[in-house]
Amino acid sequence: MLRPFLIKAVSASWGSLCLVRFTPQRMMHSRNKKAMEFIAKGWSALKEVDRVIDYCELNDKRLIPLLRTAKEHFELALEVDNSNTHARYWLSKLHLKYHVPGACKAIGAALLVEAAEMGDPDAQYELGCRLRVENDYVQSDQQAFYYIEKAVDQLHPGALYLLGSVYLSGDCVKQDVASALWCFHRASQKGHAGAAVAYGSLLLRGHQVPESLLKFNVKRAPLEKSRRSVRYSDLNPLEMAREQFEIAAKAGSDLGFKWLKRIEEEEKHLLASQATEPVAA
Length: 281
Prior knowledge:
Elements: H1 3-52, H2 64-80, H3 85-97, H4 105-117, H5 121-133, H6 141-153, H7 157-169, H8 177-189, H9 193-204, H10 211-214, H11 237-250, H12 254-276
Helix pairs in contact: 1-2, 2-3, 3-4, 4-5, 5-6, 6-7, 7-8, 8-9, 9-11, 11-12
């Protein structure tokens, strides 16, 4: 007689335990969702500012309503979820870049550092760039590269391109073209136009693809070859470069279009010269 009641009681107690256990996760998910809604609204207002800001003064009064809307929504997102790094990052941009009422450079810098320390790749990249170029009297390269490398670890395209440029030029580090190619390759995979152009131009100059990248080009190797037998000689640098320039052109890069046009003209010239050569008897 007691068995049904015991089963019911145990089920109820387990249900309450499950509720206690999973409610924080549900609450966290709810906070994240609400915060992202606020961020989306703030970001939408900020994109509208970016759309017209090139055609007016930075402190144009007509931008103030949009800037206030963006600022309020990013602040609301932080009130809902104080651990949200995206809200911190975008709010820091408002304080540092835009003429929003109540803007404060110190607050913007603090928010940017917090977002970077909390792991936001956009914040890490921007903080690294600011430390690298905005401190004429402070040797901050080490700090800058610390944050840039953190962003690279998360495959941030801008950070990958910047680190690749540093390796290519040998600025502050030992020149390493192979590492530069790796960075440019991974950035171009994410649609970074500058990285795609840099990667393609290096291929045309005869630089060999690092072994670590050959696995990404297995599909270009003959079908009868195994994955491990892919070598640089199996690849076509011209076709690989063309693909990179197409990525850049797709992203709207003028250099991408120019390189594609140049390759096309060179191919036409080569075909024309071959057609005029006398055939050996």
